[in-house]
C-alpha cells in the first residue's frame, strides 16, 4: 500500500478504507499484515509503511506493536450490548451474546482465518483476540446484571461465562478446525448447563 494515498493530518483518506483516524488506520494496517505474516515478522516500519504514518504518529497513540495488537481488534466494530428486559439464566444470556457476536464476526471470517493460518490460536495474536472478546463480554454482562449481582461467587461465574463465550467464538473464527455455529451453540450450552447467577 502506497503512503502517498494518505493525508498525514488527523484523518487519512484512502480509496480502500475511506476517512479513518490514525488509530483506526494503524489497527487495520496491522490486521492486514497479520493475514500474510507472523507477528514476529512484523516491524513498526512495516506497519508505518502500510499506513503512511511515521513513527512519531505511531508513538502518539501506542506504546509499541503489542499495545497496538491489544487495541486493533476494536476495528472489527463489535457491539457487545445485549438488550433484554428480563433476567436470563447464564446459559441463555451467553447464547444470546454468542449469537449476536457470531453474526457480527461473520463479515471478518476470511480475514480472521488468514490471520490464524500465520499466527497460531495459542500464540500471542490468538490470545490477544480471545482476551479482547472476553473483556467485551464481561463488561456487557456486568451492565446486564447491574446492581443485582451480590455474592462473592458472582465474579467467578461472570468470568467463567465470559471466557466460555470468547473461547467458543475463537473456536469458530480463529481455529485450525473451525466449529460450525450449531456445534458451538451446543457446546456452549453444555459447558454452562450448571451455572446460575447467585444474587444473594
Using only C-alpha atoms, the radius of gyration works out to 19 Å
Q: Which structural class is indicated by helix and strand composition?
A: mainly alpha
* Helix-strand topology string: EEHHHHHHHHH
Largest sheet: 2 strands, antiparallel
Distance between the amino and carboxyl termini = 57 Å
Tell me the overall shape. Answer: elongated
Widest sheet: strand order? 1-2
Oligomeric state as shown:
single chain
The number of helices is 9
Helix content: 55-70%
Q: What is the total tally of β strands?
A: 2
Architecture blueprint of SSEs:
Elements: E1 12-14, E2 18-20, H1 22-36, H2 44-51, H3 55-61, H4 65-72, H5 90-105, H6 109-118, H7 124-145, H8 154-173, H9 181-191
Antiparallel strand pairs: 1-2
Helix pairs in contact: 1-2, 1-4, 1-6, 5-8, 5-9, 7-8, 8-9
Amino acid at each position: 500500500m502506497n503512503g502517498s494515498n494518505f493525508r498525514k493530518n488527523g484523518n487519512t483518506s484512502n480509496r480502500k478504507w475511506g476517512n479513518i483516524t490514525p488509530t483506526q488506520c494503524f489497527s487495520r494496517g496491522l490486521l492486514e499484515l497479520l493475514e500474510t505474516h507472523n507477528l514476529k515478522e512484523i516491524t513498526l516500519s512495516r506497519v508505518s509503511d502500510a499506513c503512511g504514518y511515521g513513527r512519531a504518529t505511531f508513538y502518539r497513540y501506542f506504546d509499541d506493536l503489542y499495545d497496538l495488537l491489544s487495541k486493533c481488534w476494536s476495528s472489527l466494530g463489535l457491539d457487545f450490548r445485549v438488550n433484554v428486559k428480563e433476567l436470563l439464566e447464564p446459559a441463555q444470556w451467553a447464547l444470546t451474546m454468542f449469537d449476536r457476536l457470531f453474526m457480527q464476526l461473520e463479515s471478518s471470517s476470511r480475514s480472521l482465518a488468514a490471520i490464524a493460518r500465520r499466527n497460531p490460536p495459542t500464540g500471542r495474536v490468538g490470545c490477544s483476540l480471545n482476551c479482547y472478546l472476553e473483556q467485551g463480554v464481561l463488561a456487557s454482562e456486568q451492565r446486564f446484571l447491574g446492581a443485582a449481582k451480590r455474592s462473592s461467587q458472582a465474579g467467578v461465574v461472570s468470568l467463567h461465562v465470559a471466557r466460555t463465550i470468547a473461547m467458543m467464538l475463537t473456536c469458530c473464527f480463529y481455529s485450525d478446525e473451525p466449529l460450525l455455529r450449531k456445534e458451538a451453540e451446543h457446546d456452549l450450552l453444555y459447558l454452562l448447563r450448571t451455572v446460575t447467577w447467585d444474587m444473594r
